[in-house]
UniProtKB/TrEMBL annotation:
Residues 44-194 form the Lipid/polyisoprenoid-binding YceI-like domain. This is YceI family protein. PANTHER family: PROTEIN YCEI. Gene3D superfamilies: Lipid/polyisoprenoid-binding, YceI-like (2.40.128.110). Pfam families: YceI. It comes from Aquimarina algicola. It comes from the Bacteria. SUPFAM superfamilies: YceI-like.
């Protein structure tokens, strides 16, 4: 009789402990939304296409100028450069070196040949991060029907994405001078960020 009574008490205690036990949280089952919160919040930067500009410098001649962008598409997030892309077109007729006679000559067939090739275009193939706020954009530049791969180095600050590259116009059949090195052209891209 005592044995049966003891067994009943033991069963009762086990049941009480079983139902009253508090299960500790399983740390391995954390809310995954926290883990991906930063990715979900990431947004592409928006650029002011109206104020964006391209400037250049014919180094040998010390001739500076600008060219107007007619089409610009930038898909860029500094935290997701693998999915970034850059493309755009500039209008040859808008080349401005602050000398209308020289600008007119640049439209000739020997140079940019505006009538046959009215635009200059660029399309990126890859964007690579190089340290803090520095990015290399690799893509194809087409001038006067000639397509060449170039690399543009961009630096990012709070207000602007600034790009720089150097080409030789003779590589694109734009022969300002006979010697290739004298056809050096430094180019800057200025893309203001919309706040």
């Amino acid at each position: 009789m005592k044995i049966i009574f003891g067994i009943k008490i033991l069963i009762y205690i086990i049941n009480i402990q079983g139902f009253s036990q508090i299960t500790p949280p399983n740390n391995s089952r954390q809310n995954t939304s926290d883990k991906y919160a930063l990715i979900d919040d990431v947004k592409n930067l928006e650029f002011d296409t109206e104020k964006s500009k391209i400037s250049f410098d014919f180094v040998e001649e010390n001739t500076k100028g600008t060219i107007s962008i007619v089409d610009l598409k930038i898909n860029f997030n500094p935290n997701d450069v693998d999915n970034a892309s850059f493309s755009g077109k500039a209008s040859v007729k808008t080349i401005d070196t602050n000398n209308f006679l020289r600008d007119g000559h640049l439209m000739w067939e020997k140079f940019f040949y505006k009538r046959k090739y009215p635009t200059i275009s660029f399309k990126s193939n890859q964007v690579v991060s190089f340290g803090k706020n520095t990015y290399k954009v690799i893509g194809n530049l087409t001038i006067k029907g000639v397509e060449k791969e170039i690399i543009i180095t961009f630096s990012l600050n709070d207000s602007t994405l600034l790009g720089k590259t150097t080409i030789y116009t003779s590589d694109f059949n734009v022969n300002i001078h006979d010697e290739r090195l004298k056809n050096k052209l430094d180019i800057e891209f200025h893309f203001p960020i919309v706040k």
